[in-house]
Amino acid sequence: MNDRLLVLVRHGQSEWNLKNLFTGWKDVDLTEQGVAEARAAGRKLKAQGLKFDVAYTSVLKRASRTLDLILEEMGQTVPIVRDQALNERDYGDLVGMNKDDARAKWGEEQVLIWRRSYDVPPPGGESLKDTVARALPYFVQDILPRVLRGERTLISAHGNSLRALIMVLERLTPEKILKRELATGVPIIYRLNADSTVASHLDLAA
């Protein structure tokens, strides 16, 4: 029986999430809360009786470490593939800046456009559309075929790179994906049909 299982998890809270800073590709670690969120995600997945064949993550520490903690809690060892195609959106000149400071410098409306428009990038950075253009081909070419072959797959990545995958999985418009909030450390379990459409999905929020 082909399970066609795909689980997406946004990394646990990072040090810069806590400080309200634009993070992007900056390689920051998890906070204590982030570690706890990752471990909790592992326990939730274990309670569902899930077992994985392969896992994917970005090259950034916060996603990688979240994955390691999840697998540790589950008592599982699987091959792990790391690729920068799954990295967070690059916020360019905003990286390292407090979101309130950015609003003071450029105005609330402009910062909101950079954060919540689909195709307007911040200076020197990527729009969500750019992130989709990076993450989606990797998902379609490398990850999805394995899921459809019945390899149970876990992805630990970032809010925006995961939005790119959710957009295609759930067939959401650019407007709808912008409104989709992803909590840190909350697994989303998808089971796919043979044609890659979603048979069911379950959000393991607390």
Topology at a glance:
Elements: E1 5-10, H1 15-18, H2 32-47, E2 54-57, H3 61-74, E3 80-82, H4 99-106, H5 108-116, H6 128-148, E4 153-157, H7 159-169, H8 174-178, E5 187-192, E6 198-203
Parallel strand pairs: 1-4, 2-3, 2-4
Antiparallel strand pairs: 1-5, 5-6
Give a structural overview:
The protein is α/β, with parallel strands linked by helices. The protein has one domain: Phosphoglycerate mutase-like (Rossmann fold). The protein is 43% helix and 15% strand. A hairpin with a 5-residue loop joins strand 5 and strand 6. Helix 2 packs across helix 3, helix 4 packs across helix 5 and helix 6 crosses helix 7. The longest helix is centred in the last third of the chain and has 21 residues.
Short summary of the structure?
With 206 residues, this protein is an alpha/beta fold.
Query: Roughly what percent helix?
Result: 40-55%
Structural class: alpha/beta
Q: How many strand units? A: 6
Q: How many domains comprise the coordinates?
A: 1
Question: Going by CATH, what is the homologous superfamily?
Answer: Phosphoglycerate mutase-like
Write the CATH fold name.
Rossmann fold
Secondary-structure element string? EHHEHEHHHEHHEE
Mind telling me the C-alpha Rg? 17 Å
